[in-house]
Structure formats: structure tokens, C-alpha cells
Amino acid sequence: MLRELTIKHCSFPLVAPFRIARGVKHAAEVVLIELEQGGATGRGESVPYARYGESVDSVMAQLESVRAEVAAGMGREELQARLPAGAARNALDSALWDLEARLTSVPVWAGLARPSPLPLTSAITIGIDTPQRMGEEAARLAGAGPANVLIKIKLDAHEPAARIREVRRAAPDARLIVDPNESWSIDLLRDLQPELESAGVELVEQPLPADADDALLDFVPRVPVCADESCHVAADLPRLQGRYQAVNIKLDKTGGLTEAWRLLRSARAEGFRIMVGCMVCSSVGIAPALELAREAEFVDLDGPLWLKDDYADGVRLRHGLLVPPQPGFWGA
Q: Which CATH architecture best describes the domain 124-323?
């Protein structure tokens, strides 16, 4: 046997409930991969997402189905054909990148001919709450970081205008993204255009359900619309033309860094603006996404900041910037 594969379910309690349009999260439930070969261990993490028909059990079962092939030496390109895009492939793809870097002593960033990761500006998310409480959180974020902190506002179809106005009032200099998580209709999106524009919102992330976004074909937005649930892999891009102006690349949707790079290059070539996002996860899940983040106009990688206890050498928020993990944490 060339490699030894370990598959674990890890639960990370959150510092506070994380509320979005489709529910409330109290802990990050992740699947962790450890892949050992020649005295080196590569790690990868993913977040099974019910929206895509995934669970911890289903993802672990997918990974078990390729155990023998992984142990025998299956590589990243073989993996792309063996497992579909999703959380299972992401965890394994990330572990393979990490393992290769450790076996060759060539960091992932160097292998990609990129500079080493540096601190960067990431969106900080405000979950759904009353307008007043969302404003209070916006004021706290604006006071704790730079004046132009990037705030992502989670919304649903209830009082979106009031929530946007209160966040803007509390953080007048902040940059704003709004994310309704598929909870709006085309009529609501159209009605909110003046509000979004006057508040200086820079991006509206997946306002309509993915299966109802044909309504965007004859819609001319005042604020760019970004595909999240509608965009998983590079093959999705032709359908997104005429509907969206940006795409949100998440490793748990692409099935890992390997396909995410293809999606990024293809999206840029087709004229889409680039966002790199994440699920609520630990720093093991964020580290590979940082390899993409420097290529993005919008970065939303605050997942570990929601955890009560992340890895001690993982990402940190310092002076309003997301600081990469310590050297050797992943991919180095």
C-alpha cells in the first residue's frame, strides 16, 4: 500500500448562531482527510452541504468508495474523473495538494508560480438579525478594522431594505456585499435596485433560486449580480452569460483547488468578475482557497472566524486583514 487514508468527522462549535435565509448553523460540521505517504501527511477539509444533497455520512461514503485507488496512488487529475464536483472531492483534492508539497518540499504557491500568500482584505459576514442588531454589528466591525472594511450582509425577503439601510448608517465608509442566498424573487430584486445603489452595495450574491435565474436574462441590474449556487465548475459558465456579471468560486462546489483554477481562468477569459468564497469551516478548509484569493476582486474567507476554537496556527484577523496560516500549516 502506497498511502494510508484517514477520514474523520469533526465538529467546530460557533461563537454565535450563524443565520442565513435557509436556516441557522450552530457548529461547522466538516470532513477531514489525512493522507500519509513516506512519512509526510497531507490534510484536506470539506463542508458537506445539504443544499447540494450532501451530508457528513454521504461524503464519507464517497471517500470510502475510492479508498483503494487513493491508497494505490491516485492523482489529482484521476480524481477529477473518479468523483463528481462537491465536498468529497474537495477534501481529497486538497489533501493531495498538501501531500505533494510536503513530499517535494515545494510549497503549493511556488508550484503554481505564485508569490507566497500575504494578508488580504476579506469580507466579514453579518448574519440575519433585526435591523438594529445588524447595525450594531456593522458599527463594531467598522470600529475594529479599517474604515473601508468589507462587510457581507446576509438577507432574506423580510425587511431587506431596512437591514441594508441600518448597516450603511452604522458603517458609512464600509464596502458592502449583500447575500440573499436564493431567497428573493425577480420582482423584489427589481424593486430593491434604488436601495442597493443608494447604499453603495458593490455586489448582490445569488438573489434568485438557481433554478429560477432565467428571470435574470432580461434584467439589467444597477449593481452587479454574482452567481453562487448557480456556478459550481467551469462547464457552468456558458449558461451564466447574460444572467450574471460575477461568479463566486468555492472549493466545496468545484470539488477542490484543481477545478477551481480551471474555473477561475475560464471565468476571467469570459469576462466575469471573480469572487472567492467559503463555507463556515476551519483554517484547513480556507488555506487552499487562499491560493485563489489573490486573483479575486472580492474575497469572502471569514469562515474560521466564526469558530470558537480554530487551529492555533491557522488564519487570523489582524488590523482588519486576514492573515494566512503559519508556514507549514498547509501546502508548504
A: Alpha-Beta Barrel (3.20)
The cell numbers describing 302, all together, are 471569514
- What is the Cα Rg of the chain in Å? 19
In one-letter notation, the amino acid at residue 12 is: F
Residues 19, 268: Cα–Cα separation, whole Å: 31
Closest CA to 287 of 319, 248, 228, 327: 327
Asked if 253 is an active-site residue, the reply is no
* Model pLDDT for residues 246-288, shown as the tens digit of each residue: 999 999 999 999 999 999 999 999 999 999 999 999 999 999 9
Residues 6+ apart with CB under 8 A from 72: 1, 2, 3
Cell of 84: 463528481
Calpha distance 59→45 (Å, rounded): 11
Helix (H) or strand (E) holding 24: strand 23-37
- Asked whether this chain's domains 4-111 and 124-323 adopt the same fold, the reply is no
Q: Assign 30 to helix, strand or coil.
A: strand
Which residue in the list 8, 25, 250, 253 is annotated as catalytic?
A: 250
Q: Out of 8, 25, 152, 154, which one is annotated catalytic?
A: 154
Q: How many other CB atoms are there within 10 angstroms of residue 71's CB atom?
A: 15
Question: Which class is domain 4-111?
Answer: alpha beta
CA dihedral 200, 203, 207, 209 (to 10 degrees): 180
Per-residue model confidence as pLDDT tens digits over 60-110 = 999 999 999 999 999 999 999 999 999 999 999 999 999 999 999 999 999
Q: Where are the domains of the chain?
A: 4-111, 124-323
Catalytic (active site) residue 154: yes
